Every structure is written in structure tokens, then in C-alpha cells.
Amino acid sequence: MSRHSRSRRDLEQGIESDFGRNLSYGAYLDLPTLLSAQHPRATPPQHDELLFIIQHQTTELWLRLVIHELTSACTLLGADDHRQALKRIARVKHIQASMTEQWSVLATLTPSEYARFRAFLATGSGFQSWQYRAVEFMLGNKNAGMLPVFAHDEEQHAELVRLLHRPSLYDEVLAWLARRGHAIPAEVLERDVSEPYHSHPGVVEALGRVYADPQRFWAEYETAEELVDLEDNFQVWRFRHLKTVERIIGSKRGTGGSSGTPFLRRALDLTFFPELYDVRSAIQDVEPEGYHGGDGRG
Ligand code: HEM
Ligand SMILES: N[C@@H](CC(=O)c1ccccc1NC=O)C(=O)O
């Protein structure tokens, strides 16, 4: 018989166990705080409320990291370090994938189970997620109308006002393109960044030149496509939220006071980076060699 048992792993000599003085796992991560922050409210207690709380808390933790990475991406772009900025964006894309995948856990909550504790949420709603709104602002979906929801918390409100008036990731990319010699119109570069961004034909033209010659403008082309990935991922998250909400509350109104799914559906029409989509329609299809016109019907 082998000396090594397959039923029990022997511990090694060096394994630390004196955490009276040494830093432990739980102390480093402040797990006592993290794991004492779940406070179900339903009476009598409902088994599924813990799932609901943890789904939101994990999302908020990931949003915290997204804000950290996007803040850094903006600073790096401002310093013309697009390579490092793209590293940040690559990480955000993986976080988004994880956040989107996580909807399947909440989708195990049936309408009957949710109905047993929904009333205890009162007027609470994800609409009041400060970090979610911060990410939307950082990506460029500026909307001062979102601020009153945060008026009860001076610090959060002030931070959102600050982000509203700061250039978004897209503003930083457009300024970076201009510094690299691309013809970004001055009125775009000097715009009031607290206002919603609208597509500008001059930016579509500038991007058209990038997309017409990716080899020549590889850095610009790659950066642009990374932004499209970010927006695509964001929309998939919104879509999965909408579909999860549909299967759990149907066409009920939201606890935040909105119409519910019609309100959420309208967010799917939004775009952070309008010209990156407009440019796609402007790209000429390449004709096959030896092609002499015709309507394609032979
Ligand atoms: C049972 C699960 C859920 C239901 C039924 C639900 C329902 C809704 C509804 C109806 C709204 C519209 C605002 C309102 O009137 O309340 C909303 C907004 C929102 N929810 Fe949820 N939600 C659920 C889970 C989540 C989770 C897990 C998150 C993650 C943090 C989340 C984040 C948000 C955000 C960020 C908004 C604002 C969206 C926007 O402004 O477009 N929701 N939710
Ligand atoms: N708006 C949801 C309630 C809800 O989902 C919620 C309530 C409190 C804290 C976070 C929530 N999540 C997302 O909106 C509803 O209408 O059922």
C-alpha cells in the first residue's frame, strides 16, 4: 500500500497557526465586518432573502473594483499611456462577464419566494445604487436627473456631482485621439462634460479613417474596439437584469417607483460611445476581385 493516504492530507511542519500575533486571512480581509453585514428583514424569516442580499453585495463589491479600474484607465489615457489603460479595461471586461454570469444564481429565486419578502424592501431599489450610477457617469451616460435620489447622503451626492463634471472615459479617449493627430472637432473637446454626449459627424469621420486603415492606426483601432466590448458587456448585464426582473415580478411596478420592466427596457436604447456604432454603418464593404457591379442576384 502507498505511504500516502488518499483520504487525508497530512499537514506540513511550516503551516502557521499562531495568529495571536501574526496577520491572519480573516484579519487581512476584515471578514468579521464583511460577514456581519447581512441583515435579512423579513418576519417570519425567509430562507431566500440571504440570496437576495448576497447577490447585491457581491455586485457592489465588483462595482467597487470597476470604479477603481476605470478611474485608473482615465488617468493613464490622460498621460498618453494607452497600453496600461487597455490592461485596466481588459480587467473590467472580465469583471463584467462575472457580474453577468451571476444573474443565473438570482434566477433560481421564484416569484412566489420573492413575494414572501419583497414588501420588507419597502422603497429600496437598485436604482439607488450609488456605485452603479458612478460607473454609468464614468462611461459617459451623464444625467443630472439621477442626483436627487442621492440627496439624503451628502458624501455620495457630492462624489456623483464631481463625477458628473469630470471627463468620462470616452471624453479621455477622444482627447487622446486629438493629441495623436486625429481631427476631433474643438466643440467636442471643449464641450460641457456634465451634459449627455451626442454623436458628432466629425468624430464619425475621424474614426472612419482609423477603421479604414487598422494597420496604420492599430493603437486607436484596438482602443476603440475595447470600448465597444465594454459597452456590449454593459448592455448584456442590463439585458440579463431585465430578463431576471421579468421572470420574478412580471409587469409589477418597481419598489423604486418606476414602471418596472418598461423603464429598464428603455435603458437598452442608450449608448455610451455613439460614434463607435455610427462608424460601422459608414465602413465601405470591400468588393471581391474581378467584381463589375450588379445587384447580386446573378
Ligand atoms: C429580484 C431581483 C430584482 C428585481 C425584481 C429588480 C427590479 C428592479 C426594478 C423594477 C428596477 C427599476 C427601478 C424601480 O422602480 O425599482 C430596478 C433597477 C435597478 N436594479 Fe434591480 N432588480 C433586482 C435585482 C437587482 C440586482 C441583483 C441588482 C444588482 C446590484 C440590481 C440593480 C439595479 C440597478 C443598478 C437599477 C437601476 C437601473 C437603471 O437605472 O437603469 N437589481 N431593479
Ligand atoms: N426594485 C425591486 C426591488 C429590488 O430589486 C431591490 C430592493 C432593495 C435593494 C436592492 C434591490 N435591487 C434591485 O433593484 C422590486 O421592485 O422588486
Automatic annotation (TrEMBL):
Pfam family, one: Trp_dioxygenase
A Gene Ontology molecular function term of the record: L-tryptophan 2,3-dioxygenase activity
Domain of life: Bacteria
Cited SUPFAM superfamilies: Indolic compounds 2,3-dioxygenase-like
Cofactor note: Binds 1 heme group per subunit.
Catalytic activity: L-tryptophan + O2 = N-formyl-L-kynurenine
Coiled coil: none
Enzyme class at the top of the EC tree: oxidoreductase
Cofactor(s), names only, from the UniProt record: heme
Binding site for heme: H241
Keywords: Dioxygenase, Heme, Iron, Metal-binding, Oxidoreductase, Tryptophan catabolism
GO biological process, one term: L-tryptophan catabolic process to acetyl-CoA
Pathway named in the protein's UniProt entry: Amino-acid degradation; L-tryptophan degradation via kynurenine pathway; L-kynurenine from L-tryptophan: step 1/2
Its EC number(s): 1.13.11.11
Chain positions recorded as substrate binding sites: F52, I53, I54, Q55, H56, Y114, R118, T255
Role, per record: Heme-dependent dioxygenase that catalyzes the oxidative cleavage of the L-tryptophan (L-Trp) pyrrole ring and converts L-tryptophan to N-formyl-L-kynurenine. Catalyzes the oxidative cleavage of the indole moiety.
UniProt subunit comment: Homotetramer.
Family note: Belongs to the tryptophan 2,3-dioxygenase family.
Protein name: Tryptophan 2,3-dioxygenase
